[in-house]
Amino acid sequence: MRILAIFTCFNRRDLTERSIRTLRENQEVIFDYVVVNDGSTDGTAEMLAAQPEQIDVVNGDGGLFWNRGMYEAIEHTKKHHPDYDYYMLMNDDTKFFPGVFDEMLASLKGDTVMVGAICNEDGSLSYGGIKYTKGIKYKKYGPGEQELCFDTFNANCAVIPHDIFMQVGIDPFYQHSIGDFDYGLQISKKGYVIRVFEKYVGECNDNTLQRTWQDESLPRMERIRLKESRKGLPFADWFHFLRKNFGLGTAIVRSMTPYIRILLGTKTRYSGA
């Protein structure tokens, strides 16, 4: 089976090459690619051109970041590569485990998104399926929860059947983060099933909170500045996400919560931002 893998990248040539190389270590599954190269200057373009796989490269100008890069990649794929049975959203910093997608083949179904959970170097969960527990609070799940149906997922690895892929798209409103959560929520709201595969599919350490807006050791105004940066959690993005998925009332109240917690110096490391 051929699966079309989709990702966006910027100046991570060696990690990007490693992801492609490790996906090559499957026998029954062959991966083709649509890649948004968002203005990389580190030789990524040349590396991609040298790979033996079929790689369709869409060039960005360096200002797309993750969400808008994935939006461009998905829309390009729908227009130019509509004939695959399955598509896979992925991050290019993941080291995939040998043969794991060969094992996943038997679990793939046309009405189900199969999330490939990712682990840290120490074997603990870093990315996986997401289930909301109370309001905007959520819990992240990895392998061992095959019977659960999830609300959304981290898009570090998610295999999406053709019909679902063609119906749902990434919201281009978001700049960098939150887009995958929103994307998965739109899928589950349409009645489709989201499950997590029975074993980890790869390794990638969870993002550190150091030098981010959730780093409680930083001065308050620096944290607010980082929060409003494109790689943070800008107010407009967060408000849009909350209003779209949880209603106006929740958006009005919870969009202000991070700022209050920063100013009061209380904990901001909580699921649901």
Task: Give the second-level CATH assignment, the architecture of the largest domain.
Answer: Alpha-Beta Complex
- The CATH topology of the largest domain corresponds to Spore Coat Polysaccharide Biosynthesis Protein SpsA, Chain A
Output the strand order for the largest sheet.
3-2-1-4-12-6-13
Distance between the termini: 39 Å
- Structurally, the number of domains stands at 2
Describe the structure.
The protein has 273 residues and is of the alpha/beta class. It has 2 domains: 202 residues, Alpha-Beta Complex (Spore Coat Polysaccharide Biosynthesis Protein SpsA, Chain A); 65 residues, no CATH class. The chain has 10 helices and 14 strands. The chain has a 7-stranded mixed beta sheet, with helices on both faces. A hairpin with a 2-residue loop joins strand 9 and strand 10. Helix 1 runs parallel beside helix 2. The protein is globular. The relative contact order is 0.14. The mean pLDDT is 94.
Search tags:
alpha/beta; Spore Coat Polysaccharide Biosynthesis Protein SpsA, Chain A; 7-stranded mixed sheet; 4-stranded mixed sheet; 34% helix; 22% strand; globular
Can you lay out the helices and strands and say which pair or pack?
Layout (H helix, E strand, L loop, with lengths): L1 E8 L3 H11 L6 E8 L6 H7 L4 E5 L5 H16 L5 E5 L4 E2 L3 H5 L7 E4 L2 E2 L5 E3 L1 E6 L2 E5 L10 E2 L3 E5 H6 L11 H11 L3 E4 L5 E2 L16 H9 L6 H12 L1 H7 L2 H8 L9
Parallel strand pairs: 1-2, 1-4, 2-3, 6-13, 7-14
Antiparallel strand pairs: 4-12, 5-14, 6-12, 7-8, 9-10, 9-11
